[in-house]
Amino acid sequence: MFFDTHTHLDYLQQDTGESIDQLVQNAMNMGVQKILMVAVSQQNFAIIEKITALYPDRLYYGLGLHPLYIQQHTQQDLAQLNQHLINRTANLTAVAEIGLERAIPALLTDELWQKQGDFLDAQLQLAKQYDLPVNLHSRQSHDQLYPFLKRIQLKKCGVIHGFSGSYVQAKRFVDLGYKIGVGGTITYQRANKTRQTIAKLPLDSLVLETDSPDMPVYGLQGQPNRPERIRQVFEHLCSLRKESPDLIQYTVWQNSIELFGHQ
């Protein structure tokens, strides 16, 4: 059994034209029992809530304001997020996707970098207020993200999604209580630093994710990524670890359920 802890199924549906029923069935056929959908802006809050309501035992969701779209986010969006968290259903189990983005120069002006920090801070405070974990975007920003997480200590912590940093950076997050999201990156031989890091981290600090329709696994570049491809990520994870596949599967499942299963 697998739990895909980071997807954008709404975008996958747009990309493929397939129904949500078909996408969920495809995933289940490959052993993906549970899926977390995450938001990127206030505009997809309602659609994500609607989709997950169709599969209350399979689909969970996180709502948040992604740093890639920092130019469009407003204080009103934060107020809307707060309102959704107040009125949340059992399947709203995370504040996500939130974080910091340093790979795009246009988002690094003094004003926008300050705004990224302000919105991250506000959303971490909401996660703390409602006792929810977070799912964190961190591109070229691990060292900048860490002080926020250290200062605003969440009870349930969450996941550093799509991690591709050093072992030292990963271990600092793990020591705070965060999990590391393991996705398609480890299927690329050239991603040596990330592969070595994932091989060395404690098994109870790892969760699996696809980021579908993004972060494709090796050999399937150019195609929309899908939750069922988590099986390939798992196989690569097993090849990097000393533990048995059964133990890896069980531990990673438990890690995911404890974080993002029903509260």
UniProtKB/TrEMBL annotation:
<comment type="similarity">
    <text>Belongs to the metallo-dependent hydrolases superfamily. TatD-type hydrolase family.</text>
</comment>
<feature type="binding site">
    <location>
        <position position="137"/>
    </location>
    <ligand>
        <name>a divalent metal cation 2</name>
    </ligand>
</feature>
<keyword id="KW-0378">Hydrolase</keyword>
<feature type="binding site">
    <location>
        <position position="161"/>
    </location>
    <ligand>
        <name>a divalent metal cation 2</name>
    </ligand>
</feature>
<feature type="binding site">
    <location>
        <position position="6"/>
    </location>
    <ligand>
        <name>a divalent metal cation 1</name>
    </ligand>
</feature>
<dbReference type="InterPro" id="IPR001130">
    <property type="entry name" value="TatD-like"/>
</dbReference>
<dbReference type="GO" id="GO:0005829">
    <property type="term" value="C:cytosol"/>
</dbReference>
<dbReference type="GO" id="GO:0046872">
    <property type="term" value="F:metal ion binding"/>
</dbReference>
<dbReference type="Pfam" id="PF01026">
    <property type="entry name" value="TatD_DNase"/>
</dbReference>
<keyword id="KW-0479">Metal-binding</keyword>
<feature type="binding site">
    <location>
        <position position="97"/>
    </location>
    <ligand>
        <name>a divalent metal cation 1</name>
    </ligand>
</feature>
<dbReference type="GO" id="GO:0016788">
    <property type="term" value="F:hydrolase activity, acting on ester bonds"/>
</dbReference>
<dbReference type="InterPro" id="IPR032466">
    <property type="entry name" value="Metal_Hydrolase"/>
</dbReference>
<dbReference type="InterPro" id="IPR018228">
    <property type="entry name" value="DNase_TatD-rel_CS"/>
</dbReference>
<feature type="binding site">
    <location>
        <position position="211"/>
    </location>
    <ligand>
        <name>a divalent metal cation 1</name>
    </ligand>
</feature>
<feature type="binding site">
    <location>
        <position position="8"/>
    </location>
    <ligand>
        <name>a divalent metal cation 1</name>
    </ligand>
</feature>
<protein>
    <submittedName>
        <fullName>TatD DNase family protein</fullName>
    </submittedName>
</protein>
